[in-house]
Structure formats: C-alpha cells, structure tokens
Amino acid sequence: MGTAFMVLCGAATLVGVVALVVLLADLALDGAPRLSWSFLNSFASRFPERAGVKAALLGSVWILALTALIAFPVSVAAAIYLEEYAPQTWVTRLIRLNIANLAGVPSIVYGILGLALFVRTLGLDRSIISGALTLSLLIMPVIIIASQEAIRAVPSSIREAAYGLGATRWQVVRTQVLPMAMPGIMTGAILALSRAVGETAPLIMVGAVGFIAFAPTGVFDSFTVLPLQIYNWISRPQEEFHQLAAAGILVLLAVLLTMNAAAILLRNRYQSRR
Amino acid sequence: MRNTFRALNAALTSALVAAACGGGGESPGLAGEVEIDGSSTVFPIQEAVAEEFQIANPNVRVSVGFSGSGGGFKRFCAGETDLSDASRPINDRERETCAAAGIEFTELRVAWDGLSVVTNPANDFAQCMTLEELSRIWQPGSTVTTWRDVRPAWPAEEIKLYGPGTDSGTFDYFTETVNGESGASRADYQASEDDNVLVQGIAGDPYALGYFGYAYYAENTSRLKLLAVDGGNGCVSPSDHTIADGTYAPLSRPLFVYAKHAALSRPEVEAYVDFMLSSLSEVVPSTGYHALSGAEYEQQLAALQGAAGASH
User: Fold this and answer.
1) Closest Cβ–Cβ partner in B44, B65, B213 for A46
2) Which of B 24-63 lie inside 8 A of A, CB atoms?
C-alpha cells in the first residue's frame, strides 16, 4: 500500500516534468536555429530572416525592472505593517481578506483598471510606466501574502528575546524579523515577477503596441513586450514566423531563468548571513 | 529678412514633401512620432510600411498596435492615434463619435484580402458553392448538419464547421456578405481567433468546412482544398489574380487605413502617409495580401493632399 502511494506520487511528479521536457524539446527544435545575436539585436521585420526581438526584450526588461522597483518595497512595507504594527481589529481583518481576494482577480481586470486610472485619469498615456504600475498592482497582493506568511513564520520567541534585551520595535523588525523572513519574501517576489513577465492581457489594455523599431529611452515611451511579440508571430500564416515565435519563447524562458537564478543567489546570501 | 526666411522655409518644406512623394526619399532631419493602431488583419501591412519608413527616417518614432478595427477607431476618435487600420469601413456610430470630437479624416484603401472557403483535401465532392448554399450553412439557426443537407448528391456525413471568433473583422465581413447582417451567424461551430488553429482543425478533419483570410490558405496549400464561390456570375476561385482584379466577388474585401487630417499637418505624419501610399505596391504582396493598382494609390495620394491642404 505504501509502495503504491509512493509510485503514484512519483508518477504525478513525472507528469509535470515530462510535459516540460517535451515542450522544451519541441521549442528548441523549432526555435534554436533562429537564435543568434542578430535575432536579439534586431527589431521586428516582415522578413523572417531579418526579424528580431530587440524592442520586445528591452520592453520586457524595462517593465520588469520598474515593476520590481515599485511592487517590492510597497508590498513588503504593507506586509510588515499588517503583521508587526497593525492592531488586530476587524478593519485589519477586512484588509487582509481583501488582499487575499485581490490575488485571485483575473489579470485583464487589472488591465482595465490600469487603462482608466493610469492611462486616462493620471494622463500617463500608453507608456512603460503605465504598464509597470498596472503589473505592480497585479502582483502586489501575491507578494504581500507571501511576505506575511514569511514574517509570521519568524518565531515570536526571537522577537521577545530582542525586546527583552531592550530593542525597540523598529530594531526588532530591522535586525531580527526582516532578515529571517527575507528568503520567504524573496521566493514570493520571484514567483510574482515570473507571473508578471508572462502577462499579455493587461499590457494590451494599457497600450503595449505590436511594432516599434526604437529602443525605449525613458519611462514615458511606448513599448512592446516578449509575450506580445510571440503572440503576434504565432498568429501569422507563414511557418517561418512560427519558428521565430519559438525562438522568442526561448528568449523569454532565458529571461525568466536568469531572473530566478539572480533571486536564488540573493536568497542564499541572506540565508548564509543568518 | 523675416519674409526671406519664411520663403526659404516654405521652399525647403515643399522640397522635403516632394522627396517623400517621389518614392520615399530619405529625410534624416525628420523627427517626431507617428502613432498607429487598429485591425490585426492590416497589421502585417502597416508593420512592413513602418519598418521601411523607419529605415529611411531613423529619428521618427513609429508605433503600430493591433487592438482590432473597433478598438482602433475608439482610440482614433478619442484623438489618441494619427492613423487607424481597419478591415471594414468605419461604421455610423464611430463616425458620429469622431465628428463629436471634431476629428476629420480621409479613408484610404490599402489592399485587398480574399476570404477563402476551404475544405480538407480528402473532400472530393465539393468544388464550388453558391453564396446561397454558404448562407444556408452559416445563417443563425441553420438546420444544416450534414453535407447532404447542402446538396442531395453529397454524402450524408456530418459537416464540421470552422470559423473565426466574433471579435474578428473577418467574421464581420463574412457574416455581412453571406448572411446579410454583420455578426449574424450560427454559433455551433469551432471558433478561434487564431486562424492557424482553424487550419489545423480543417487539415485534420475530412468533412470539415471553414473560412479565413487567403494568406492562411496560401501558406498551407498542401493541407487544404480551396472551394470556388459562385456569387451570381459563375464559379470563381480566389487567387492572386481574381482577388486583385475584383472578379472573386463578393468575398474579396478592401482593407483600410484612416488618416486624421489634423495629424497630416505634422511633417512626420504627412511624410509617413506619402511614403505608405507610394510603397504599398511593393510592400503589400510580401505580406500575403493583394495590392491595388499603382494608379489607385496615386489617386488617393492626390485626393489626400487636397483634403489635408483644405483643412490646414
């Protein structure tokens, strides 16, 4: 019985792994021949052999960096407040419940919100900053919840010991709670940003475009992102563009893996410092 | 002194415009932004024009979106874009919105697209269908379930239908032309916004029938079979020739670009539109669509210059 259960769980693990391997192999077969420096360093073109992902790659990096800069500090601050400072009243409970619910709202809804709020009301137009703010709203609930869990997992004995030694609340949070919670917070942030890098729908709503042939120079420039470029290529009739789409997906995966690797390195540094 | 300067300026400007009209001469001094949005069907054409224009004018920033014909008009009539791509003519409501916002524009025809009706290559009985038969199959509440329901001589096999989803301009055009009302269609068919999915479906289903843009047939000729359509003047198969000369009627549709008059007073937009109309003859065929004749592009260019000149 025990063995059967183990086999079952093992098989369940394999399903995910096999699907991933098949997908990657298929992509690599289609896309790898298209990967080259000129693919990374060219703008989109109607000639498949001239086309590249420069605009989309730069757009994705801009959006991602800005989103991280906006979402991370705000989310962690919110989580610290909710866990360490906020009085346990029905108001805080309501806020928590709301945040949990927001994490489940479909991304297109955030796109509509972003269009109304950032693009039209605040007059930020269809720009990188509108896109980054919208994605920040989208992933903040996820980071807040993960951070709250991580902060809650810090044993209260540690807090009490620090208080016992005369530390202020600010000192306790800064020197004890945050460093211990940081690996958990980072994991949450990585997952959230990985979600952001693959989002298309909300960015279409706030005006990501299909074709630009200039590199963004500031946060008010118009932009496109990798998922949108991939979608654009995959819907073309010509087989060559489907190969470009596969190559684009490989680039997107590389961005994702680089990001995750960087975050894991950061996390390990925090863990070893402890 | 000031007058001399003004005259010089005017002379320079007209020289620039003339250069741009004469097949897109390089004017590196040109800077600014051209914002375009609209139909995803027209997108490959606009992308190709933007690409070429960008090479000749590296300091102008051209951005092309694909929010769809309707989405494009919404932005266009809100004054957010300079040009709007559309796979159907602007409708009355959109026209009113534009008028209310004080936006004057000129409609330009940029290319022809042929909607193709296709089956699986294993289908050896159907060669040509009349519009009336297509309408009987696709109209709302249609009772056609087998091929025999269409013509008694055809097999009593279930007819599997594939078509674009309701957000598509292709769907709007086909339903309007075949069923007489834009958007009126039976709903029990395999729908996808991605035409490649329709190609896959029809290629794998011997009794399938579907429709989409001709470019998707042209890339998959070995996996699909093209049907001729009888629009009242005999059976005509869509081909590069019959679509471009209009004999493949009524399923050939024009593709449009709408140009805002106020934007045309900006030299970069004017140069872009001039460049577009003078390069379409070469650009359009490389995108899988069908170009109008050179004379038709020139006529539109002349008309546009007249219209824009009157407005500023």
Assistant:
1) B44
2) 35, 37, 40, 43-44, 46-48, 50-51, 54, 61-63
Q: How far is B32 from chain A (nearest CA, A)?
A: 12
Over residues B100-121, the mean pLDDT reads 94
Using CB atoms, which residue from B47, B62, B215 is nearest to A237?
B215
Do B280 and B191 fall within a single domain? no
Residues 134-153 of B with CB under 8 A from A: none
In the predicted structure, residue B93 carries a pLDDT above the cut 60: yes
Task: Write down the domain spans for chain A.
Answer: 35-273
pTM (two decimals):
0.81
CA distance, residue A129 to nearest chain B CA (Å): 17
A232 interfacial to chain B (CB closer than 8 Å): yes
Q: Are residues B240 and B132 in the same domain?
A: yes
Residues whose CB is less than 8 angstroms from the CB of residue B130 and which lie 6 or more positions away in sequence, other chains included = B229, B230, B231
State the DSSP code for B159.
P
How far apart CA A104 and CA A102 sit, in angstroms, is 5
Q: From CA B200, how far away is CA A211, in angstroms rounded? A: 27
Q: What DSSP character marks residue A182?
A: H
Domain span holding position B173 = 114-252
Q: Return the ∠ at Cα A49 (arms to A47 and A55), rounded to 5°.
A: 80
**pLDDT recorded at residue A177:** 93
Fold (topology level) of A35-273: MetI-like fold (1.10.3720)
Using alpha carbons, select from B111, B25, B86, B38 the residue that is nearest to residue B286: B111
Of the residues B206, B230, B252, which one is the last residue of a structural domain?
B252
pLDDT at A75: 96
How would you class B246 by CB atoms within 10 Å of its CB: exposed for 0-12, middle for 13-18, buried for 19 or more? Answer: exposed
Subunit contact B65:A209, Cβ cutoff 8 A: yes
Instruction: Find the CB nearest B61 among A47, A207, A214.
Output: A214
pLDDT of residue B2: 39
- Give the count of beta carbons closer than 10 Å to the beta carbon of residue A49: 11
Based on the fold, state whether residues B145 and B238 are members of the same structural domain. Answer: yes
What residue type is assigned to position B201 of the chain? G
What are the pLDDT digits (tens) for B29-49? Answer: 788 899 999 988 899 999 999
Q: pLDDT tens, B112-146?
A: 998 999 999 999 999 999 999 999 999 998 999 99
Check residue B38 and report its DSSP letter. E
